[in-house]
């Protein structure tokens, strides 16, 4: 799927012709990306076309259809974030092909100013450049320099295209037909992109239903969250069996939405009532477990796959940015190995996952910024000033946060934080859901958190292997 200069020229002419018939102005509304294409919508005069822009390698050129990229192929990366930030919400004026080389430029208007965004396919690489206005000041971003700089002067389209001379822009137009009105190019374009989508969306000959995929995935997530909440009944029952005089606090009962009748006055009456209600929760847990199994059995029996594209993303050349990222990661790795984080404890779980506990506010901040990644898990005791714990993510989802693991982490937090007590509630979320508070060491704002009530495991330290 590599389009030559003559083909690109013809397709530009046809697309601009369609826009002209629709009023001459298109609006950039939505954008997605797959491993191979940047996909965005252009709407004009009640009609929407979805442009597919090749990201490089064997996908070079641009195509369009009336339907967007299927959800099973959609991915997220820095190019999509950039396009959404700077181009969505603008008005597309024209798509222009360079007279010399395969440089495709989207000329658009935003805040009353004319801007240019170009893709340049050269060999197997893809480069891009962007000239835009921000607060009435012109800026220029060239992917091979990987930085946004103020433009020394206002650029017209020809001045802007001359920036690509740094990449040895050549005159391909002299070697091909500058323009040939051949309708077969349009038919071939439609067939190419349609065939690509058919092959990608139907792996191993199985045609998944996008609606069913989304529905079953959401259903499984809700069931897993409910299972985690329901599992609290076991802890309450065990504690009541161990201590004949024990009866849970109202807050603990509210987690399972249990209410004890007010006319029950004696401890024995209340405990008998609670035991009866806990048995019901056992049945609820079994029911949820069966439902979770059926969610994943059903797609197979119906011939529907919960398949999601995992093809490596083709990245345009973002030279210095990628170099700086690699260098930054290397320096960060060396720094982490050479500098120990003071006042932090590091352990290894029986599952070989690594977990770290900060004993002071500074250590909590350093663990979050230097040791943990965005996908790792953060733990804290609910309602108490406690140590922060960070668990390395081994790819396990929330549904693998079993009660034993949460009780183990909660028990460690109690003791490391110097708190007395034999029970507590641990709250947890992923590190990406945390936000530090400026000027307040160790303090974070969190969201998308979950909570789990636990009984302290006295032997927690014997289950953790201390490491340097």
The outline comes out as elongated
User: Radius of gyration from the CA trace?
Assistant: 29 Å
CATH topology tier name of the largest domain: ibrinogen binding protein from staphylococcus aureus fold
* Mean of residue pLDDT values: 79
Alpha plus pi helix count:
12
**Helical percentage:** 25-40%
Stretches with pLDDT under 50, minimum 5 residues: 204-208, 298-306, 321-327, 333-339
Number of structural units classed as domains? 3
Q: What share of residues are in beta strands?
A: 15-25%
CATH class of the largest domain: Mainly Beta
What does this molecule look like?
By secondary structure, the chain is an alpha+beta fold. It contains 12 helices and 19 strands. Strands 4-3-2-1-5-6-7-8-9-10 form a 10-stranded antiparallel beta sheet. About 6% of the residues have low confidence.
